[in-house]
């Protein structure tokens, strides 16, 4: 396994700086091999390659952690049911992937790399197919938008109700979401911002800065109560360790608060002995859109504390600086279960801070909105 993992990681360095070329070659070859597959993808392919490559890379980079590898791939297979992908499609994709890797890597590619990727892809798709076959849920859920609240120019909080079938998920997980009326066959992932409930209601926090993605823009600016969305199977492991007795640290930046809010909501139902510390950061005070609701929870639950911070307003009545810096002023956090959610930059900085505080890696779970 060690040599196998080494070959995968080593060979990836030959192509990782040229993902656009890799993705372009992959899709060109894929649609040439099976033109019917084109209808499974959005009309505009921009960004689609990054997502499939991210899934492949994540899988190949975790082969030295079999337990995580197995669960991730089974969940990925369940998620890919939304694309109507079957076993024959995976075989065609494997041919296209290897052809794209060889072409992009050039002279640095060798037979050992080729065989390692061939075996890895077979193992990956076997787990994905098994995960899909074992799933009794529908490939996706139709959901009706119940409420839609704008917070400033670029942020919205919306609630939806899954129709026909309950959508099973755990606090801290995320789902893929499609707005078919605006952008059919384009899916984006969003963390669920509430704990499971009997009403099949899910809450999402969406931000769409200038020039951001189509789905987020549609959800913030054009979605209204009564609109229908589609939700895919839940994924993600930023969930509570129910057997742990350690106190909890949550660090959230911007709409990264969504899974943290869900975790806190779950804890209000089950927690009796664990102290929970939430650090919530944004650039400006108006971006701390969920702070009033968090402060109401603090008044109700004595085990909960919330520390807000702003990085670009020196007059803010609270902590100043990036949230990754603010959290280091407290602690130590070595005996806590730590949850981190936010932008890629914020997550990277917070993980470095926790590492410097010598928090054991197995006690840290994180979710990033973008590539870490």
TrEMBL record:
Enzyme Commission number, as recorded: 1.14.12.17
Cofactor names: FAD; heme b
Alphabetized GO MF terms: 2 iron, 2 sulfur cluster binding; heme binding; nitric oxide dioxygenase NAD(P)H activity; oxygen binding; oxygen carrier activity
Keywords noted in UniProt: 2Fe-2S, Heme, Iron, Iron-sulfur, Metal-binding, NAD, NADP, Oxygen transport, Transport
FAD-binding FR-type domain segment(s): 138-241
Superkingdom, natural source: Bacteria
Residue ranges constituting the Globin domain according to the UniProt record: 1-133
A Pfam family matched in the record: FAD_binding_6
Coiled-coil ranges from the UniProt annotation: none
Tagged with keyword Transport: yes
Reaction(s) the record says it catalyses: 2 nitric oxide + NADPH + 2 O2 = 2 nitrate + NADP(+) + H(+); 2 nitric oxide + NADH + 2 O2 = 2 nitrate + NAD(+) + H(+)
Record flagged with keyword NAD: yes
InterPro entries cross-referenced by the UniProt entry: Cbr1-like_FAD-bd_dom, FAD-bd_FR_type, FNR_nucleotide-bd, Globin, Globin-like_sf, Globin/Proto, MRET, OxRdtase_FAD/NAD-bd
Family as reported in the entry's similarity comment: In the C-terminal section; belongs to the flavoprotein pyridine nucleotide cytochrome reductase family. Belongs to the globin family.
Protein name in the entry: nitric oxide dioxygenase
Origin species: Micromonospora mirobrigensis
Source lineage: Bacteria, Bacillati, Actinomycetota, Actinomycetes, Micromonosporales
């Amino acid at each position: 396994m060690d040599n196998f993992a080494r070959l995968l990681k080593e060979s990836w360095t030959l192509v990782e700086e040229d993902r656009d070329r890799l993705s372009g070659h992959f899709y060109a070859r894929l649609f040439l091999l099976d033109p019917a597959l084109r209808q499974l993808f959005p009309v505009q392919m921009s960004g689609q390659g990054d997502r499939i490559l991210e899934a492949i890379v994540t899988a190949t980079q975790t082969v030295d952690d079999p337990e995580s590898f197995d669960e991730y791939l089974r969940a990925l297979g369940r998620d890919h049911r939304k694309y109507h992908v079957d076993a024959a499609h995976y075989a065609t994709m494997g041919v296209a992937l290897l052809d794209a890797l060889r072409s992009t890597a050039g002279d640095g590619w060798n037979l050992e790399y080729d065989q390692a990727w061939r075996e890895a892809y077979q193992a990956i798709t076997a787990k994905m197919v098994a995960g899909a076959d074992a799933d009794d849920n529908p490939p996706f859920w139709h959901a009706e938008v119940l409420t839609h609240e704008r917070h400033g120019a670029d942020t919205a909080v919306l609630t939806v109700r899954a129709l026909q079938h309950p959508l099973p998920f755990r606090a801290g997980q995320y789902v893929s979401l499609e707005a078919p009326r605006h952008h059919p066959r384009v899916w984006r992932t969003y963390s669920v911002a509430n704990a499971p409930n009997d009403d099949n209601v899910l809450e999402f926090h969406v931000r769409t800065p200038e020039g951001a993605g189509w789905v987020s823009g549609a959800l913030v600016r054009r979605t209204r109560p009564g609109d229908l969305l589609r939700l895919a199977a839940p994924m993600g492991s930023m969930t509570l360790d129910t057997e742990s007795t350690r106190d909890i640290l949550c660090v959230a930046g911007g709409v990264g608060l969504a899974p943290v809010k869900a975790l806190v909501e779950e804890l209000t139902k089950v927690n009796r002995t664990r102290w929970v510390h939430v650090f919530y950061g944004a650039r400006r005070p108006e971006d701390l859109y969920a702070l009033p609701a968090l402060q109401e929870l603090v008044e109700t639950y004595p085990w909960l504390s919330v520390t807000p911070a702003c990085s670009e307003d020196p007059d803010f009545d609270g902590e100043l600086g990036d949230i990754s810096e603010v959290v280091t002023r407290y602690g130590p956090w070595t005996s806590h279960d730590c949850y981190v959610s936010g932008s890629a930059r914020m997550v990277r900085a917070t993980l470095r801070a926790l590492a410097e505080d010598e928090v054991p890696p197995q006690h840290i779970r994180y979710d990033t909105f973008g590539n870490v």
